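We include the pair:
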Amino acid sequence: MLDPKFVAEAMSVIAANTNVPVSVKCRIGVDDHDSYNELCDFIYEVSSQSPTRHFIIHSRKALLNGISPADNRKIPPLKYEYYYALLRDFPDLQFTINGGITSIEEVNAACTEGAHGVMVGRAAYGNPWQILGLVDSAVYGAPLRSITRRQVLEQYQVYGDSVLRIYGPRPTVREVVKPLLGLFHAEPRNVVWKRAVDAAFRHCTTIKSLFEETLGEIPDEVLDAPITEVPSGITDTFIKAKSLLPPPYTVNEEELLYA
C-alpha cells in the first residue's frame, strides 16, 4: 500500500494475462500511514493506472511493528466509516467490506447500508454450518433447504475421497478434512470429536474411514438436525459508521505525480 505505483503496474500485468476481472484486497492503512486521504490516494492511483475496478477493504490498518498476524486481526480498531466513505467518493468503483463481520445478520445490515458486497472469512471457516448454510436463504432469498450435517458429510466424503492425492502426495486426508473442523461449532461433544479426528489423521487413509471412526462421537440429534435459524449479530454498527464519515476526498494530482 505504500507503493501504489507498483501495485498498479502489477495489476496491469495480471489483468493482461487473464480473461477474468481482477481485484485488490487491502487494509485501510499501514502503521502511521492511516489517514483516510492516504487510503484514497492508494485507491485513486491503482484504479486510474490499472484496470482494477474492485477493491476488498479490510477495515483495519496493518501494524508492521512485529505483532503477530492474529493480533493484526484484532488490535487495530475497525473503521467501517472509511469503507462507506469510499462508496461516496469513488462511485464508479466496486467495494467489498471485510473485517469483524461474524453473522448473517451483520452481512445483511452492511448491505442495507449500501455495501456492494461482504467478505466473511474466519467466521465462515470457524462456523460454516450457521454461516455458509444460511447464505442462500438469508442473503439471496432462496428457499431454506432441509439438509442435515449428516447429509453434507455423506456428500463431502464422496468428494473428498475423489480428490485425495490427485497431485502426488497431496492433498492429504488432513488437508481435505481441515475445512470441516468447525462444522460442529458450539455443539455437544465437538471437542471430543476434534480430538478423535486428530488421532485418526495418523492412520486413516481415506475420508470414509476417518468419518466411520470418528462421527460416532457426535450425537445423532446433532448430525440429523436441519438448519432452522439465523444467529443474531450486531446490526447498528454500520449505521453508526455512516454517521462518522471523514470529509470528502479531493484528488491532488500534482502531489500524486511527484509522490
Summary: Strands lie at 24-26, 54-58, 94-98, 117-119. The CA atoms of residues 55 and 153 lie 34 Å apart. The chain has a mean pLDDT of 93. The first strand starts at residue 24 and ends at 26.
